[in-house]
C-alpha cells in the first residue's frame, strides 16, 4: 500500500504530462547568450551521471509561516534561474559528449505543490516519508535537473517545509548552498544579504621553521595520496553495522535531522581551544562509538555472551570520505550580484577527496573524543590531499574515460564507511522569498555510503542531518539520539572539570 507521501507525489505526477525537451534559441535566456552556455560538462559533472555516482542534493527548508507558491514562482526567475545551470539542459551531442544547452524553464514542472491533508496524524513522519519517497523518483532529464517541493503542513519545527532537490552535476555542495543563501535576505533588513562567518585562513609557517613546515606538508600529502590510492585498490574498512553499499535499484534513503545548541558547541570549543569542526567531529565520533558498542553488545547478548563494557572489535578501521571544494567558493555576495546584474561568478564541481579516520572506541573521558578529532583535523589541515586527489581524478578521466574512471573512483567511498561535512550558515534569522526560516537541513542521496552526516549551523543552532540507507541502518533515530546524548556528556564533562561555567 502506498504511503501518504507516495500518494501525494503520484497525484501531482498525474497532473503533469511529460513535455518534450525545449531549448532556447538565438537570443539566449535569462540575460545569458546561448553560445555562452553550449559548453561541455566538466569531468566531475560527467562523473555524477554514471550509475555509481548518480548523486542528488536535498535541502530541507523549514518556514515559520505557510509557504505561498505564487510568491516563490514570481521570485525564482529573478534569482535562482539567473544561474545558467538552473535554466539549462544537459544533452548529448553527435559524439555522445554531454553539454549545457539553455532552455525555457516551465516553473509548473519544477515547483511541486501536492494536495495535503492539514489534519494528518503525524506531519513530521509525513515529511520524512515524502523525502524518502522522493529519493526513489528518478530525476526528469527533459528539464533542468532540479525541483522544489512545497509542503504546507505544520511540523514540530516549522509551519511549512520546502524540499529543494538538485542533481549534483549542477555544482558542488558548497556552491549550491551558497547560491541558496544568496536567495535569502535578513529578516531584520529585507534588502540585506545574510551574514556568513568568514572561514579562517590557514596559519603560515612560523619564522625560521619554513623548511620543516614545508617538508611536513610534502610528506603528509604524499602519505595521504598514497593511502587514497591504496583505498581505491584494496584497502577496505571493517564491516560494521553502519557500513553498506547501497544499490540504486533497491535503496530508499531516510533523511532525519536533529537540532542542538550552537552555544553548547561553542562552550566546548572554547574550553578545549578547538574549532567548531573539531567539536562536531568529536561529537560524531562519540555517537558512533556509543551506537556501534550497543549494536555489538546486542549481538553478543543474543549469543549468550557475558556482559562487559566494551563490545567493540579490536583494530577496527572506520573512515569518512570528505569531498572538499578545491576552488574557493564565489561567496553569496558574488552570487547575489550575478543573479541581480548578470555578472560572472565561479561555479561548477571542483572537488577532491579527503579520507578522515574515525577511531571508534569506548573512552572513560568524553573529552578525549574531541581531542582525538582535533588531532586528526590538525593533521589533515597540513596536507594537500584534496588537491592531489582532484588532479588524480582529472588524470584518470582523461586517460581512461568517464566510465572507467567512475568505476575506479567508486571504490574509494565503497571501501570507506561514511561521508561527513560541515557547512556554515547565517548568524541571524533570514527569509527565503519573504518566508522566515526556522531551520536549514541539507543532505544528499545516491552516494555509495549507507551513512552521510551533514552539519549545518543557523543563528544559534546546529542541525545534524543524517542521510541513511534504511536497509543498512533501520534504527536511524537511535543514532540521532546518540549524537544528542554525546554532546550532553561532553558539555557536562567540560563543566565538571572546571574548564567552563554552566552559564558561559
Describe this structure in words.
With 504 residues, the protein is an alpha+beta fold. Helices cover 37% and strands 19% of the residues. The protein is built from 14 helices and 15 strands. It has helices at 4-15, 34-37, 43-47, 69-75, 123-134, 173-182, 210-233, 262-271, 276-302, 331-341, 367-381, 385-400, 402-415, 476-496; strands at 56-63, 88-92, 98-102, 111-112, 146-151, 160-167, 184-186, 253-261, 319-325, 351-357, 418-423, 430-432, 435-445, 451-458, 461-469. The strands form three sheets. The chain has a seven-stranded mixed sheet with strand order 4-5-6-1-13-12-7, with helices on one face. Helix 5 (123-134) links the parallel strand 4 and strand 5. Helix 12 (385-400) packs antiparallel against helix 13. The longest helix is centred in the middle third of the chain and has 27 residues, at 276-302. It is globular. The N and C termini lie far apart (52 Å).
